[in-house]
Specification:
This protein is an all-alpha fold and about 400 residues long. It has 2 domains: about 190 residues, Up-down Bundle (Growth Hormone, Chain: A); about 190 residues, Up-down Bundle (Growth Hormone, Chain: A), CATH 1.20.1250. The chain has 15 helices and no strands. Helix 1 crosses helix 6. The protein is globular and about 50 Å long. The protein starts with a helix and ends in an 11-residue tail after the last helix. It is a multi-pass membrane protein. This is MFS transporter. It is found in: Cell membrane.
């Protein structure tokens, strides 16, 4: 074997190792989303098993979002100079601990602590994920790598709730969480094997976040992200009452529509991974435009189940492409501070998810489900107007 041949095989092995690490990150995403949203389909039996009200149990489930918000802002400071490989491993271990605590929870207080730990894991993982991906693969391959990672999100969104509901009926809610633990344990081992050493690139602190917020183009993108995700979750959080009250579907049709929406997410990640390339700033208004138009279509055609199914598929595909587009923009325009940018972007998204749910709930209680969806359309329109042609979201001299 010549030296050239050896270099070729070494490079090929390196590429295979990098994609193995990407796949391990994708499995982490799948399990994080499953762990975060699986309890939604198990709310009633969990409340009964813990001797708590459904309302209180629902608050325990949502507490993970609050801790995710705090964790996303603090992770780069707390992680400091630690090797990012071991930070990701530590976060995965924390997810495993949280699942075990939920499965064994003797009371409501333990459930609260377990969900808080999961929130720390969620915020920390998402804040660092894009920066880690930027170090695993070359820049031209980044959209594809991100689409693979977010494919895990689409998989969990499609299957976690219906699978959790079914297994909860057959086995019991605690057994559902026990069933997740061996998969997370395998993921932990996979991280140990597949992730390369990723030394910290200088210590991060809150000053780095403040410095980044002083950049006008980044502030504009951050507000655009909040409006876009806020629009998405104002609609998505209250999708079930819309389908029940307006489309008037039964339980089986409801499950089929939600599954179709989740499956469409695979199309969105696949498409984004293959067609998102070059400077993506002009594409950043596309999710707001398409998802806003789909939501407007639901308002107009909500009583027609076939039209609703088609519109939900369009919405679901663009919803997963949304993350790939914004994270690719970040890698291109904040490449000098990816961890700080990731922290702020994830915090903004978490805040907008909570805010979107609050706004949607107020509109629903005071007016109607149609008003909630109209609020989503307004937020999407504001996002698209703010983004414009994307030029004001570009890094100067980029």
């Amino acid at each position: 074997m010549t030296m050239t041949d050896a270099s070729f095989f070494s490079a090929d092995k390196g590429r295979a190792s990098a994609w193995g690490a990407v796949l391990s990150m994708s499995l982490s995403v799948t399990m994080l989303i499953a762990a975060e949203f699986m309890p939604v389909s198990l709310l009633t039996p969990m409340a009964q098993g813990l001797g708590a009200t459904e309302g209180a149990t629902g608050q325990a489930i949502s507490v993970s979002g609050l801790f995710a918000l705090a964790s996303s802002l603090l992770i780069t400071t707390v992680a400091g100079g630690f090797n990012r490989k071991w930070v990701m491993i530590g976060l995965t271990a924390l997810m495993l601990l949280s699942l075990v605590m939920v499965a064994m929870a003797p009371n409501f207080a333990v459930l609260m602590v377990a969900r808080a730990l999961l929130g720390i894991c969620i915020g920390g993982f998402w804040a660092l994920a894009a920066a880690v991906m930027m170090r695993l693969v070359p820049e031209p391959d980044l959209p594809r790598a991100l689409s693979i990672m977010y494919g895990g999100q689409a998989m969990a969104a499609a299957f976690a709730a219906p699978l959790g509901s079914y297994l909860g009926e057959v086995l019991g809610w605690r057994e559902v969480f026990w069933a997740l633990t061996p998969v997370v344990a395998v993921n932990l081992i996979w991280h140990l094997i597949a992730l390369p050493s990723l030394p910290a690139r200088g210590r991060q602190n809150l000053g780095a976040l403040i410095a980044l917020l002083r950049r006008p183009y980044f502030r504009r993108a951050l507000i655009a992200a909040m409006l876009t995700w806020g629009a998405a979750f104002t609609m998505f959080t209250y999708l079930r009452p819309f389908l029940e009250q307006v489309t008037k579907v039964g339980p089986e049709t409801l499950s089929a529509l939600l599954l179709a929406l989740g499956m469409a997410g695979f199309i969105g990640t696949w498409t984004a991974g293959r067609f998102v390339s070059g400077q993506v700033a002009p594409l950043m208004k596309l999710p707001a435009l398409v998802m806003g138009a789909a939501t407007l279509g639901l308002i107009a055609l909500g009583s027609a189940p076939l039209a609703v199914a088609g519109l939900l598929a369009i919405w679901g595909a663009m919803n997963t492409a949304l993350s790939v587009i914004f994270m690719t923009w970040m890698s291109q325009n904040v490449d000098d501070a990816p961890e700080a940018a990731g922290s702020l972007l994830v915090a903004a998204i978490q805040a907008s998810i909570l805010l979107g749910a609050v706004i949607g709930g107020l509109l629903l209680d005071r007016f109607s489900i149609t008003a909630t969806f109209a609020g989503s359309v307004v937020l999407a329109a504001l996002a698209a107007a703010l983004i414009g042609n994307g030029q004001r979201l570009l890094k100067p001299n980029h």
